[in-house]
Structures are given as C-alpha cells and as structure tokens.
Amino acid sequence: MDFTVQNLLDSKQFPSMKPLNSFGLNQPIKNVSIIEVEDVDRICYDGELLLTSLKVYKKMSEQDFLACLDRLCQKQICGFIVKRRIERKTDEKYYKILETFCDYHQLTLIEIPIKQKFWGLAKYIMGHIFTPQMAQLKYFKLTHDNFTNILLKVDNGHDVSKKILHLIEDMIENPVTLYYSNLYCFSSTEDNVPELIFEENLKPYNPNIITKFKYMKQIKDGINQYIVKIDLLNKIEIYLMISEKNKPLTTLDYMALENAIITLQYSFIVSYTQNEIKKKYQRDLGYSMLNGLLNNKQMDAFSHMMQLDDSAYYCVVSFHTIAKNKEQVYTNEQLDEVGIIEGEISKLIDDMRIYRNLDQIVYIHEMGKKETKANFRNKMEKLYKSVDKQIKHRKSNINFQIGIGKIVKGYRHLKDSYLDSKKAIESIDVIRLLMGNNDLSVVDCSKLGFFKIFENMQDREQLLEYVPESLVLLMRNDNQHNGELIKTLQTYLDHNQSTKKTADTMYVNYRTITYRLDKIKDITGIDFDNSGEMLAIRNGLMILKLANKLN
Asked: Cα separation of 177 and 196, whole Å?
C-alpha cells in the first residue's frame, strides 16, 4: 500500500505540521530529501518529497529561484515541507514565491515549526515507503550528503568537528560529545559538558549495522552511553560519546553515526596532516634556537613568527619520555607513543610553542605577569598526572618525566633555560634523593641548589670529604653496631627537632629517641642550638645520601 502525504498528516506523529493547501495529499511519496544544495534538481526523483528551510536559496536571485523551482516541477516532485523564520526578510520573500508556485502547479506545501528537525520526519517517512534494508541505504546516502556538504564548505578543522557534532545531535535527537585520548573534552553539544569516565559496566555493543568501528555501551546515572573509539593514522585516539537522554537510538540513527564518524575521521586526518607540515618547520627552527644554532637575524625572524618577545619572561620545559633499548636505538612503537604524548600535551597546554625531536618534547612557556614558579610547577604537576593516567591506560612502557628550566628574560636566553630543563631530568635521581621522594617526576633544577657541585662526583671517598666529621663518626658507629643513629638524626631534623614527632614517625618509645639523641651528642659533640652547625649537618646528611648511592 502506498504511503501518501495524507497518511503522514493522519499519523499524528508530527501534530504541529500545517498543510497550506490541499493539492496532492493522496499522491504517493516515493522518496524524501533534505535540500542542502541549490541544484537539487539534478539528484531528485519522481514523487520525491523535499524538505527545506529555504536557507540554501538565500544568495539566489528571485529569477534563479523560480528557474530552480521550474526544474523541480519538471521532475514531478511530490511537494515541499518547509520551515521559515518570519523575522528573516529573505525567508519570507522566498516563502511567498514558493507558496504561489505550489498553488499554481498544484503541489503539496506543508509548514512545520522552525524548531522541528527534518531528520525525524525523514526517518519516519523512509520507514513507511521502503523496506528496512532500503531505508538504511537511502538514509545512509542522505546523511552522507549532508556531512560531505560540511566538509566542502568549512575549512577550519575545529569548526568542521563542531558542525558535525551539532548535525549528529539534530539527526539522533540526543547530545554528543567528542573527547581527546586524555578524556578531555574537545567539543560538545551540551552546555554542561559531561566527564568521560569508563564505568565498570562498560561492555562491547553491537549496533546491528555493518560498521568499521567498535562501539561500547555503559549505563551512568540511569542513562545509556555509547562510546566509539576513533583511531587516526594509528597515532591518535579520540572518543565519541552519545548519551541516550531523549530517545532510544534506532538503526537509522546508527547509520547516521557511521557517516558522522567517517567524516570526523577524515577532517581530523586532514587537519593533523596540515599541522604536522607546519609543526615540522617550526620544530626544526625551534630546536636550532634552543641549541643556539641560529644567528641573530634568524633568531629575530623565528621569534617574530612564534610571537616571542625580548622583554617577556620565559621558562623552558623538557618532557622526557623514553630511553633507548639495549641496542641504543628507539623502536617504532616507542616513537609512535611519543607522538601520542605530544598530541596530549598540546591539547592540555593549547600553545603553539611545543616542539618534538625524536624522543624529547620541549615547551617554551611565557610566564604571566603574576605567575610564580611555584604556580607553574603546580600546573606541570597536573599535566603530568593527566598524561601519566593515559600512558597507564594504554599500558605503554614509558618513563614520563618533566624537567623545568630556570626563568629567563627574552628569547635570546631561551638556550639557558632549555639546558637547565635538560639538566633537571639528568639529575632526577639526585633531586629525588634530596627531596626524599623516589616517585618525583616533575623536577626543577633549582631544587639542587649548591648540590650541583656534587651531582657529577662518582667517587664515594671524594664525596665523604665534604661530610662533617661528626656524621662520619655516626656512620661508622651505625656500621659497627647495626644502629640507627643517622636515621634518627635525619628524622629529628626533618621534624624541627621534636622528640615526640620523631618517636611517632619511627614507631618507637619517646625514651628511646631521647637515649639515641644523648648518644649522638656523646659521639659527635653536636650542638643542636647552633644554627650554623645544624645547616652543615643537614647538608652533610644529603651528601652522605649521595655517597651511599655509590656503594
């Protein structure tokens, strides 16, 4: 049985539909299309119902618009479903022309509210005029044409993605969000952007269509969430999340999603390729500048391109990622992982002054007027946690560390900050020892202080020459009696010479600590009230730690 315009009106599925004439209501609908291009007459069919907002004709003259309508009439179309913005003069003008044209040629004309989406109409009609298999093919083509139209009209990669997301939302009538591999939001159709958290109930999901992508489904706060991981050139991952907040997804919705994902993939690859070409040029110049290989003229030209100021203050950060394997070379997997990490850092920092050279990533940070080194270090700590979380999620064998250089004035001194950041990573074991934190991964060379003098010493006896004699005596006593006097002294000083806190930290009796402190005084003659001597003792304990590492 044929499905007609009258059947559509009688269905009550779209109660706000308003027929503006009574022509052709019993004419069978053979196809349905949304007008997205001016020359739609080339691709429309006999008996086709056309949906339009008239936006596509806004730059067309009245004469050309009428000529286009004449060509459509010759194709024996079924009629039009139209929506308009009364406040737009162009919409109103072309609407009146269309209305007169339909009355003259006895074509169906139906108006729907501006907020009504065409996609629900198209899905409903296709479901009644085609077999399920044919409806999928027709809807796939319809959505494909619309997504392709976005690619052809928009140049900016980020804008393409945003338009694609909003078009998906119109099609499936549910919100969608796109995330970077670090689970930070790239773009969303929701005002309150949901955080992407992989729940324990996350499972593979089969959308019952032929697909190239892996769908996952989870339930969060009683709402179904569908997550699709999209790989880009096997180097970058992004996640598309669909929240089934408004209505259940249908097979035709999944056909639309399939097209959307393919289009997103293409737009990201194009944008990625363009950025890589640009970044390679900047990367080569950036590393040459940081290593002092540019002359003054070249340095000025590069600084102008990268918007570097000779009066601004900068801090260079080195991100160390991997070490060479036993053959002293890097594997392709390692280098690919560095590329992924570079992308994640770029998204988190959102700054163009990021450069990668094989295993190392470097960032030139311009210090804000009120920004302190401590504040910046806290930002790098947060960045480290975010990137490290993703490294563990990928189960990558990567030792990610961050070295922060000193603050310098002007781009001509960036080399000094860069060398300082590299030194911080090279000295990470010493800094960890000095800070008492073996898990420290964000390091600042300034933490070394005067201990820079000792970091390259590899002779234990030479180091011990800088240790106060009182500590050497304690060390020998501990070695002979398997004692803990050195440890007790260190803990006592770390807790501002509080006997109680020292006892609590070492899980021993208060009297035990008092006995050990008296013994330390007897062996060394240390005066705990002498601030100068205490400074020497504290430094000596650090040097002693460095010496003990060489055992």
From this structure: 9
